[in-house]
Design a protein that fits this description.
- 2 copies of one chain form a homodimer.
- Chain A is mainly α.
- The first copy, chain A, folds into 2 domains: about 45 residues, Homeodomain-like (Arc Repressor Mutant, subunit A); about 150 residues, Tetracycline Repressor, domain 2 (Orthogonal Bundle).
- The first copy, chain A, has 8 helices and no strands.
- The interface between A and B is large, with 38 and 38 residues.
- Chain A binds a DNA duplex through helix 1 and helix 2.
Chain lengths: ~220, ~220
DNA sequence: GGTTACAGTGAACATGTGTGCACTAACAAG
DNA sequence: CTTGTTAGTGCACACATGTTCACTGTAACC
């Protein structure tokens, strides 16, 4: 009996006339957002199609109009979360990269973006290891690519422009892992305490500093 | 109709007369092993009570004779996996701790233990972030404790005996995170290629070396 | 203005799930 | 030998899940 369109899935938007594709993309986004919302306290594996559909305000079968399976939804989540990550390094790049203060500003932009798109980062860090399906391989692939980019960036620094590509990659991976650990600490804190946040970022800066200090004494040999 | 004891859940052991508690603990272990086996390609969240019970060769309701819920099984898995981890550092400690070669021997024992108890380490790394239930907090707690121990160990080294407890902790956490990343790489490799393993451990050594090199230039100030 | 494409509905299915209940047979203790 | 414990069984229930099917009303197209 209910009209399929008049009160659409996304909730009553201020009734602007929107195209059909527009509307479809809107409930598609609604599905994604619903999933992210539910993922606050569940892992992707423990997430059912019906649940997501209900949260988005559509009937289970309508889900298939947007995704062929839950895995496909997962991929979409990876893409969207990765976009957040890329926006972050874009931000990080345009900051003052004076060797001394690059650490502080990098951690700061990391922190800002994590707090701004908490669900994305929570999803990425959770499913990086947790998931086993296509989601995990998608994240792994994207993260590998991300590591490559960071390696290139690192190569531009003072003491690092003589390093081999392999060593740069090694260092980049170490930084990525360490920072993802920081992200996990940030998104899993129960009450977003201001003081706790300060402590976490402080440790993150120290870890980064320790790594960077190692550059001075580096020699690539020793198999 | 089937005899409940004569052909017990654990499979026909060579018919030694075993006590009752013995037998119970045996199927309990069988449940744990079955779970670990299933966890090879599933996350703990996507694991059902019935599935585990069937894999262990008992009927679903008998599961409750051993665990009140799946979460409780998860805790048992954490305990058992953590035992592997502790055995590892016990091994690592008795190795030659000459500052220069500590890295090589540490990574080697890490590698040996990971390959020897792959399921345990896979479970730990997967559910450390992936899980959300009691399992994750149990792992987090144990891992925090583990970090403390490592911090104490680090404090005994040459250049580190003057460091503050906080800084030692920071370094220990960095090392733990990095090494858990290595473990993930090891247990998620599809074909346990000998060459791939060598590469992974090589990178792990380099990362560890980079961190240790940073110790030389460390100054604890800079808030 | 009539026709088509299609996002959405609702009923239905087969299957898997967690859990309660009454029961059984062997062990351990009296 | 008797008796109580208990690990295990089998049945049953209520419910959630993924997926199918025929359908409907509207936006888009000729």
């Amino acid at each position: 009996m209910v009209d399929a369109r008049t009160l659409s899935a996304v909730g009553a938007q201020s009734s602007e006339p929107v195209s059909r594709h527009e509307r479809k993309q809107r409930t598609r986004q609604s599905l994604i957002n619903s999933a992210l919302r539910l993922l606050r306290d569940r892992s992707f594996a423990g997430l059912s199609l019906r649940e997501v559909a209900k949260e988005a305000g559509i009937v289970p079968t309508a889900f298939y109009r947007h995704f062929a399976s839950m895995d496909e939804l997962g991929i979409a989540l990876v893409e969207q979360s990765m976009r957040s990550l890329r926006l972050m390094i874009r931000d990080a790049r345009r900051n003052p990269e004076t060797y001394g203060d690059a650490i502080r500003s990098s951690v700061q932009t990391l922190y800002d973006h994590v707090r701004a798109h908490e669900e994305h980062f929570r999803f990425l860090t959770r499913e990086r290891y947790g998931g086993v399906g296509p989601v995990q391989v998608a994240i792994a692939t994207e993260l590998r690519l991300f590591g490559s980019e960071l390696a290139v960036d690192l190569g531009r620094f003072e003491g690092l422009n003589t390093w081999s590509a392999e060593d740069l990659r090694m260092m980049a991976d170490l930084i990525v892992t360490a920072m993802l650990g920081t992200v996990t600490d940030l998104v899993d804190v129960r009450a977003p305490d201001q003081e706790a946040d300060a402590e976490i970022t402080r440790v993150a800066r120290k870890q980064l500093r320790l790594i960077v200090l190692g550059v001075a004494g580096w020699r690539s040999d020793t198999p």
